[in-house]
Input
Amino acid sequence: MARGTRRPPHPSDRALRVGLTGGIGTGKSTVADLLAEHGATVVAADDIARDVVGPGTPGLAAVVEEFGQGVLKADGTLDRSALGSIVFADEGSRARLEEVLLPLIAAEAWARLEEVPAGEVAVYDVPLLVEGQMQDMFDLVVVVEADLDTRLERLAERGLGAEQAMARIASQATDAERRAVADVVLVNSGTPQALARDVASLWEDQLAP
Output
C-alpha cells in the first residue's frame, strides 16, 4: 500500500531519508537487504546497538551500572541473552535500557545517514521508529507487516518459543500504531518472490533517483 507514487520532496543537498520499521518477525531486515540490492545505503539500528555496547564503550559501562554485572559474560562482553531476559520481562527495565541506549544509537545513526551523498537513498532500518516518535525525521516511512502466525513461525525458526515471541511482540508498537505513521505498508505474509516484487515496485515508484 502506498500513499503516493512519486519520489517524496526533500532538499537537493542531501540523500532521500527513508525510515524502515516493522515488528519482530515481519521480515524488515529482508526488506532492508532488498533495498540495498537496488542501491540504497542501509544503516541498521541493530548493528549500531551492538556497536555502542562494545567492549570498553561508555554504553556498555552505562548498561552494567544500570543492570549489574550479571549482564556480562566471563570475557567482559555483553550477555545479550541475560539482558534480554530482564528487559523483555519488565516494562520498567526496558524503558531504562532505552533511556540509556537510544540517545547513543540515534546520534551514531544520524551521523551515518548524513554521510550518504546527495541524490542517493539513505534507509534507516529501525525497530523502534514509532516508539521513539522518529517519523518526522524521514522523507518517507515504510512499515513491514506480517500476520501473527507467520511471525511466530519465523521466530520459532530463530529459536524463540511461543511465550518468548509473544512477549517480544507485545513489547513493541502495534500494527495500528505503525500504520498511523506509514507512507508505505509492505505486507510480508507471502512468498519471498512476492516481497521482492513489492520492494522493486516501491523502489521504482518512490525511491529511485
Remarks:
- The first helix runs from residue 28 to 38.
- The mean pLDDT is 93.
- The first strand starts at residue 16 and ends at 22.
